[in-house]
């Protein structure tokens, strides 16, 4: 168990953290009525700038840089989607393409390398002495702890506070919310920018939280997996968390499975496990989940 089960569980939790941060961000954006397909690009920006900030002044600065980078990209998406009423899918896709190219380009002038940055200082994980020998707990990191705290904070905010009621109102019936004096544009901006900040934090959890470096392709579609987890979780933080754990387990298992000696399969087949799980989950739950009624619909003030 010490050599198999505990490492698998710890690896699942570590790999779930980036998905949870990003998935909770997706919940806030879509609960307010804005589809954020650009989460993958925001994760890329977060992963890169977390490494850049850590290179400058340590991992805490890296986390702040990551959140800022994700927030800036989300602000662009919010402006295009809310003010200009651009197609939200196209806007998010453009952000993904731009972020991928920008991060790849910046590696050269900043790190003087190609395709991958230098290793930087990761976020340390110091536990009190009596906890250092606890199985699983000793193999986690602070991103994992923060991700699970975030789930319950987000659930409380969305379903137990007036702010959460306003967010859900603008995602369900924005014209009625507007009639009651709720600023629909302001609430949507708030939630989309928050989704970018959390996606940036998810990118930081992936780079300085797991391997303290950035390389091209390291996000590997995790922003889309987080979106799938949100749908699987029925646009709720706790449900999204369980879906992220399922997908992260698939990722952790495929890494461990590549070391199996009794059953030898192509590594590419093992690597596809998380994506197969994502497709199966979506195929099995489409029609069984309910999106906010105004999700993806631009709002024009005064429109009924």
UniProtKB/TrEMBL annotation:
UniProt KW Transmembrane helix keyword: yes
Main localization of the protein?
Answer: membrane
Keyword Cell membrane on entry: yes
UniProt-listed InterPro entries: ABC_transp_permease
How is the protein disposed in the membrane? Multi-pass membrane protein
Question: What is the protein's name according to its record?
Answer: ABC transporter permease
Q: Which Pfam families match?
A: BPD_transp_2
Any idea where this protein resides?
Cell membrane
**Keywords recorded for this protein, A-Z:** Cell membrane, Membrane, Transmembrane, Transmembrane helix
> Where are the bilayer-spanning segments?
6-27, 34-54, 60-82, 89-111, 140-159, 189-211, 269-287
CDD domains per the UniProt record, alphabetical: TM_PBP1_transp_TpRbsC_like
Give the signal sequence positions: none
């Amino acid at each position: 168990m010490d050599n198999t089960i505990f490492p698998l569980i710890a690896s699942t939790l570590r790999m779930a953290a980036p998905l949870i941060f990003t998935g909770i961000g997706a919940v806030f954006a879509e609960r307010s009525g804005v589809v954020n397909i650009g989460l993958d690009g925001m994760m890329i920006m977060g992963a890169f700038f977390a490494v850049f900030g850590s290179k400058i002044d340590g991992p805490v600065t890296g986390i702040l840089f990551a959140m800022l980078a994700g927030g800036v990209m989300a602000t662009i998406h919010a402006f295009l989607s809310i003010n200009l009423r651009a197609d939200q899918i196209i806007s998010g896709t453009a952000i993904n393409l731009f972020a991928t190219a920008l991060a790849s380009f910046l590696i050269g002038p900043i790190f003087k390398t190609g395709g991958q940055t230098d290793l930087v200082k990761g976020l340390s994980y110091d536990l009190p002495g009596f906890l250092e020998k606890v199985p699983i707990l000793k193999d986690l990191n602070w991103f994992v702890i923060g991700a699970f705290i975030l789930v319950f904070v987000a659930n409380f905010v969305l379903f137990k506070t007036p702010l959460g009621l306003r967010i859900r109102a603008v995602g369900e019936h924005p014209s009625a919310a507007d009639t009651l004096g709720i600023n629909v544009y302001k609430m949507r901006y708030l939630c989309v920018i928050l989704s970018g900040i959390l996606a940036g934090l998810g990118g930081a959890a992936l780079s300085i939280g797991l391997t303290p470096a950035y390389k091209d392709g390291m996000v590997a579609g995790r922003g889309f997996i987080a979106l799938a987890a949100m749908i699987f979780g029925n646009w709720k933080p706790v449900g999204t968390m369980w879906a992220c754990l399922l997908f992260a387990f698939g990722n952790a298992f495929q890494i461990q499975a590549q070391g199996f000696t009794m059953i030898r399969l192509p590594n590419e087949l093992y690597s596809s496990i998380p994506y197969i799980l994502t497709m199966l989950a979506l195929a099995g739950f489409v029609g069984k989940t309910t999106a906010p009624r105004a999700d993806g619909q631009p709002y024009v003030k005064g429109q009924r």
